[in-house]
Amino acid sequence: xxxxxxxxxxxxxxxxxxxxxxxxxxxxxxxxxxxxxxxxxxxxxxxxxxxxxxxxxxxxxxxxxxxxxxxxxxxxxxxxxxxxxxxxxxxxxxxxxxxxxxxxxxxxxxxxxxxxxxxxxxxxxxxxxxxxxxxxxxxxxxxxxxxxxxxxxxxxxxxxxxxxxxxxxxxxxxxxxxxxxxxxxxxxxxxxxxxxxxxxxxxxxxxxxxxxxxxxxxxxxxxxxxxxxxxxxxxxxxxxxxxxxxxxxx
Amino acid sequence: xxxxxxxxxxxxxxxxxxxxxxxxxxxxxxxxxxxxxxxxxxxxxxxxxxxxxxxxxxxxxxxxxxxxxxxxxxxxxxxxxxxxxxxxxxxxxxxxxxxxxxxxxxxxxxxxxxxxxxxxxxxxxxxxxxxxxxxxxxxxxxxxxxxxxxxxxxxxxxxxxxxxxxxxxxxxxxxxxxxxxxxxxxxxxxxxxxxxxxxxxxxxxxxxxxxxxxxxxxxxxxxxxxxxxxxxxxxxxxxxxxxxxxxxxxxxxxxxxxxxxxxxxxxxxxxxxxxxxxxxxxxxxxx
Lengths: 250, 287
Prior knowledge:
The structure holds 2 protein chains of 2 kinds.
Chain A: E1 23-33, E2 40-50, E3 54-58, H1 65-72, E4 80-85, E5 88-89, H2 96-103, E6 105-109, H3 120-130, H4 138-148, H5 164-176, E7 182-186, H6 194-209, E8 213-218, H7 221-226, E9 230-235, E10 238-243
Parallel strand pairs in A: 3-8, 3-9, 6-7, 7-8
Antiparallel strand pairs in A: 1-2, 1-4, 4-5, 9-10
Chain B: H1 2-14, H2 16-53, E1 55-60, H3 66-74, E2 79-85, H4 87-97, H5 100-108, E3 115-120, H6 126-134, E4 139-143, H7 146-188, H8 190-199, H9 203-243, H10 253-286
Antiparallel strand pairs in B: 1-3, 1-4, 2-3
């Protein structure tokens, strides 16, 4: 019998029901306390981030942006509530599965964490090396990643020979070379001048257009205003605004 | 695997002081261990020689029932074999060894009593067996090489125990040294390790270079220790055999090779165990 199901409209013939967008990150009543003081870094946070979204996470220092990132990466565990990544609660990622989870998440930090003794190419290939990708695949994949960030001509340069912006782009190339479905960027433009910052943001936009979900923590107002996306505003660990239209609201 | 080996070699070269310190401690420990084991081997061989020679002699009273005493002695713990030698046989033996005894016997008659000759299982048993035999009714007196047997056993046992104690201490030191070397190496790579963890490297991948480092250190130490120990011992054994043939010095390859192999294996295993423990602890601290 044709009838109402979950309040969906009734169609007289089969009609493709729009699929619910897949949730990549779910925070359900999540609190995170600092172990030393017991103060809350995150307080009863409820957030859902869907596949393919570009989301800004904004707030002052200490607002909880990095704590959010650390929870997604399972570098910390919530004191209360539940965090789900790729549809599974964080508690299910144990031992080797934690490593496998992190392989599906690209990360870029303010300190780009490049290895000084390696060239740009080797820094990017390092991801493939530690995740066991066969060496014959490296040249093509690293080449593509460096091309995506516009550094195909600087493959042999070491980090000290690159500008801050270029270093950060190498870090992005390293984060995307394994084609992760999710990219976390924690203040990636924090050390950069406005021109380099915009350059990095353009690269992240490009990565997002290829289908990667991007979560970018920043307190750079001009960037958030220039490239508008969904913006989550944190204040003292609480989500005070979730603005689909974007814009800096502090 | 090439990456892991290269990282292990880089870590060893990068922390040269810690590497050399560990290598020296480990080599010395293995040398000491090898030395103590070889000493013990020779001590055991000497004790076996003593054991085969040590005899407790019980002199019986004139009216004692030798056959009954023999049965009682054979039932004592620690007794390997016992034999009743009548006084006439004792006199004949003595006359054969010391011909003048025959003339003395012509004057005073046979001065020797019936004698029980008892062999013990282990040389350490000679004293308790002698004491037990002496308490039996019908036994007048007991003799055994109390002086030299007791002293030899005591000295050799003490030497062996002190050697083992020293080796145990040195092994503890070696283990700590390896822990420290691996820890220093991991600390030096902390940035790389934190990047690896973020990129999704498994614990096994992060640990492998350092485990290789531990095994390489163990292997190198074993090789160095054996390079000194084997020719050194053989030269010493030749000299002892030439100057004091009474000592049964072990020189046969069938006995020496497994012992030296065990020393080498122990070195490698210590390196492996130390590095496994150190890497596990370090990664646990990071989490």
